[in-house]
Amino acid sequence: QLQLVESGGGLVQPGESLRLSCASSGLTLNYYTIGWFRQAPGKEREGVSCIADSGSRTNYADSVRGRFTISRDNSKKTVYLQLNSLIPVHPAVYSCAAVSPPSAGFCTVAATPRWYDYWGQGPHVTVST
């Protein structure tokens, strides 16, 4: 059973940066596509970014492209989401998820949450106004 633990969330000022981590507490992440999602109060969960099992492919939502960067270090069983130039938005809970992809090197930010099999608890990222 894959167990994911997120960390790195917090309260930041507009324009600042934050790095979120998604780590496996047991199994290796080598064979899993990892996605990051966020959910604001009263809104649906939306895909932010994903990275394929090999790290060869990444994908971003239009709203974060150019500001967020996803990466992975399989030796550390960890995937990172670097959030730069944060803008004032409603508080959101960021969560990571994992799935064994149908083919190696596959990920798409358009994948719905139901496509993923394993979820972490989500750090809470808040941007002050």
Q: Over the alpha carbons, how many angstroms does the gyration radius reach? A: 14 Å
Helices and strands, in N-to-C order?
EEEEEEEEEEE
Q: What structural category do the secondary elements indicate?
A: mainly beta
Helix content: under 10%
Strand count, sense and closure of the main sheet?
7 strands, mixed
Shape: globular
Task: Please report the number of helical segments.
Answer: 0
Summarize the entry for a quick read.
By secondary structure, the chain is an all-beta fold. It is 0% helix and 43% strand.
Describe this structure in words.
It is a single chain. By secondary structure, the protein is mostly beta strands. The chain is 0% helix and 43% strand. A hairpin with a 6-residue loop joins strand 5 (46-51) and strand 6. It is globular, with a radius of gyration of 14 Å. The mean pLDDT is 88.
